Fold each of these.
Amino acid sequence: MGADKFARQMQYLVDRGYRGVSLATAMKHDASRSRIVALTFDDGTRDFWDHARPCLQEFGFRGTLFVVTGRVGTVSSWDQDVGESPRPLMNWDRLVRLQRNGFEIASHTHTHRVLPSLSDHEAAHELVESRRVLAARIGTAPDLLAYPRGARTERDRELAREAGYRAACTVILRWRDVTGWPRANGVQRTQDRALLPELPRMPVKGNESMGRFRARLALARRAGLRPGLGLPD
Ligand SMILES: [Zn+2]
């Protein structure tokens, strides 16, 4: 995404009285009463550091970064699978500094492999190892996970819960995916306590217009995409 376009999107939020925060912060608020937007950034790319971070800090915004623990400081080689060129990734030094500045550092698995394609053992390793490495490097084991490409099965949700995560972000790919979400609480609760709760996210692409950005924000609000009063225990 161009830095100018990102800055315009953040300015739009400021102009309407919104504050951009991490998911950890958003979950402590009653979002129906506070004008907050949880901002999340996947992969931990260097362009976040170079372009998004200065802009967010200028506005006093924060956010959640989902990082690929086994690839920190290298390049996003997984992008080649979908025909994109690899992007440089931030190193641990930068991630630690971001955390000290109030950004939340959470897990995007250990190597960004798409979980449903893996064996039970491999999928568990992606989840457990990422949480362990973050605890060692950042000092806090993360509560949150973002599934690579949003892909997960019930098996993956079980494994993630067993690994110690408290909720996972998914990606809304189609408009109709949002219509069924509960209006009062962005956390999709489940009757099955073995499954990790889900947090639906509205993706914002680098090439979309401001009109599209406004429409996404409005739709997210109508669909009740907002964290509730806390995660289930
Ligand atoms: Zn990713």
Amino acid sequence: MNTGAMKILLAVSSRHGSTEEIGHVIAERLRAAGHDVDQARPEDVVDVTPYGAFVLGSAVYMTHWTNEAVAFTERFRDALRAHPVWAFSVGLAGLPKGKVSDPHRIGPVLLSIDPEDHVTFPGTFDPSRLSLRERSIATLGGATEGDFRDLDAVREWADAIAGTLSSGI
Ligand SMILES: Cc1cc2nc3c(=O)[nH]c(=O)nc-3n(C[C@H](O)[C@H](O)[C@H](O)COP(=O)(O)O)c2cc1C
């Protein structure tokens, strides 16, 4: 189908910034590989017709993607199903034991858009950036304070996407 540079929409939903920063790293790598990338919050996207591929990411709260990310998949389902889509989640499930598990409630959303790949990257837990309610929920869920992001793993994932798109998917 397509070869060479691709216009990509990177739609990233973040409440407190850690997922958005992961999005910036992905954008940087895709651009370094010669692709044309627009990064936006899913709720701000009104038209997806210019894009030949999508990278969609969301922070995970209470085992779900954000409402904005889910609404995006519903609004643009046909376009998403017609083009290559890569998805990532950012969460703390499983930490601090070391392994982040795929938050199972995301499954139906991903099935509906049939992505090429979905990965879960570890996020952050910074109580000072949260409301008392969020802090209590995260603490009850066993979260440990810290920034667990592995930006090398993010870069590697983005490079794999760039390579697939450059070689023509
Ligand atoms: C109230 C609350 C609920 C959370 N629920 C989950 C969860 O169900 N699964 C998970 O993997 N991470 C969960 N997390 C961790 C967040 O996904 C993590 O802090 C992430 O880095 C937040 O991304 P953001 O800074 O882009 O909003 C929760 C965090 C908070 C504060």
